[in-house]
Amino acid sequence: MARYQLPQRSFSVTAKEVDETINLKDPEDAVKYMPNLFVRKRNDGDNQAVLATRSWGLNSSARTLVYYDDLLISALIGNNNTNSSPRWNLISPEAIGRVDYLNGPFAAAYPGNSIGGVLLITSKMPDKPFAVAKETVSVMPWNQYGTKDTYVTSQTSAAAGNRDGALSWLVSANYLDSFQQPLSYTTFGTTLGVGPAGTTGTIAAQNKAGGVANVVGTGALAHSQQTSGNLRLAYDITPLVQATYSFGIWNNHQTSDPQTYLRSTVTGLPTFGASAALPTANTPGIRSM
């Protein structure tokens, strides 16, 4: 390598390449085959899908920047793999024109958080009238421990645009209805197969170190309904100067309920503890088997 040559490379994928090679359900799917990148997408519509690079992992969400039409969608309120993940769902999959990735930490045109790299997602501004709509349905059977269910996700996305002289416009919308599989399980006890007193249903299990990890239920089972819409206007002032305006909105309504495997030995009803006085399946928000 030459002494003054920056070790930075860029990688790109266009809308045409996405259509031909990628099963694009969510915006983050557009980058899953790009080198040196990994998106932790645990389910369709995951709002904690962290972008990891070759130099920073999943626990460092603030060390990589994600832009959509030059607007930052990274959530720099923290540096973790939960509530500080990029707001991918602001983007309608049908509106993506190209994706470019700049390897960090030498993206000098961007703030210091670009130390891990910069991901640039650009809308496909039209040269002629176009309209597209797509409906996607995903079905995932699940059978583990005491949870046996089928989780279905449906997504409707659409985009339309046109150019009239120097003015071009693009409008896009996306609606996703997602049911999430268990991402964690609740464990109990120090004796294999023995659960809380006064209950049945504990499943004997061990962790990877051989310790007792009896399973008594799941963590949160999320149902997410997400709606997003975007408007982008561009006006060519000169062949080299363009003025743009972008507006986007995203709404996420999510409910998360655990599932218990325990049943009271007194009433036979699902319970979350050792007493029949604890919540049962008839209590709002409680999910029984």
Keywords:
single chain, 289 residues, mainly beta, Ferric Hydroxamate Uptake Protein, Chain A, domain 1, 5-stranded antiparallel beta sheet, 1 helix, 16 strands, 43% strand, TonB-dependent receptor plug domain-containing protein, TonB-dep_rcpt-like
Describe the structure.
It is a single chain. 29% of the residues are buried. The protein starts with 9 loop residues before the first strand and ends in a 25-residue tail after the last strand. Helix content is 2%, strand content 43%. The protein has 1 helix and 16 strands. The strands form 5 sheets. The chain has a 5-stranded mixed β-sheet. The model is unreliable at 275-289 (pLDDT under 50). By secondary structure, it is an all-beta fold. Among the domains are: 10-123, TonB-dependent receptor, plug domain (Ferric Hydroxamate Uptake Protein, Chain A, domain 1, Beta Complex); 187-218 and 259-289, no CATH class. Residues 5-118 form the TonB-dependent receptor plug domain. Keywords: Signal.
Brief write-up:
The protein is mostly beta strands. Helix content is 2%, strand content 43%.
**What is the count of DSSP helices, taking H or I runs of 4+ residues?**
1
CATH fold group of the domain at 10-123: Ferric Hydroxamate Uptake Protein, Chain A, domain 1
CATH superfamily of the domain at 10-123: TonB-dependent receptor, plug domain
- In the CATH hierarchy, the architecture of the domain at 10-123 is Beta Complex
Uncertain segments are: 275-289
Task: Output the radius of gyration.
Answer: 24 Å
Give the total of beta strands. Answer: 16
Query: How many angstroms separate the termini?
Result: 61 Å
Protein name: TonB-dependent receptor plug domain-containing protein
GO molecular function, one term: siderophore uptake transmembrane transporter activity
Domain TonB-dependent receptor plug: 5-118
Pfam family, one: Plug
